Amino acid sequence: QLHLVESGGGLVQPGGSLRLSCAAPGYVLDYHGLGWFRQAPGKEREGVSCITSGGTTLYVDSVKGRFTISRDNAEDTVYLQMNALKPEDTGIYYCAAGIGACAGAVSAPEYTRWGQGTQVTVSS
Q1: Residue 31: which H helix or E strand, with range?
Q2: How far apart are CA 100 and CA 39, in angstroms?
Q3: Helix or strand or coil: residue 81?
Q4: Kind and range of the H or E element at 32?
Q5: pLDDT tens across 35-50, in order?
């Protein structure tokens, strides 16, 4: 049974940093693409970043240069390092897994398993 668990969210000032973690079974990291999505208040869920089973990464334009996705199979964890945070980054962040996901875009239909989410709030 897949069980993805996000952690690391919190309250941070604009310009600050957070690192989100997504704990996942090792075989998921080996064979699935992993994605990070977020949903801001009053807005639709959007793809933020993803990483393929082979290590290729993608980012939505609004976070390029600020966010970095990585995976550590030995720790059974996927990370999203978020730097230079802006108020518009506020939202609930979800990790998700899907076989073959992250092929050209951070696209929600490619993902079959989702975590419960972790809240990120960027405010002064």
Answers
A1: helix 26-31
A2: 23
A3: strand
A4: strand 32-39
A5: 999 999 899 999 999 9
Look up residue 73 and give its two tokens: 């199979």
* 3-state secondary structure at position 19: strand
Which of 49, 46, 103 is CA-nearest to residue 78?
49
- b/e sequence 76-111, b meaning 16+ C-beta within 10 Å: ebbbbebeebeeebbbbbbbbbbeebbeeebbbebb
CA nearest neighbour of 92 among 52, 54, 55, 40:
40
What own/partner pairs with CB < 8 Å and gap ≥ 24 does 65-71 have?
69/34, 69/36, 71/29, 71/34
**Cα dihedral across residues 94, 120, 107, 30: positive or negative:** negative
Taking only the tens place, the pLDDT of each residue in 2-43 is 689 999 999 999 999 999 999 988 777 778 899 999 999 899
Neighbours of 5 (CB within 10 A): 13
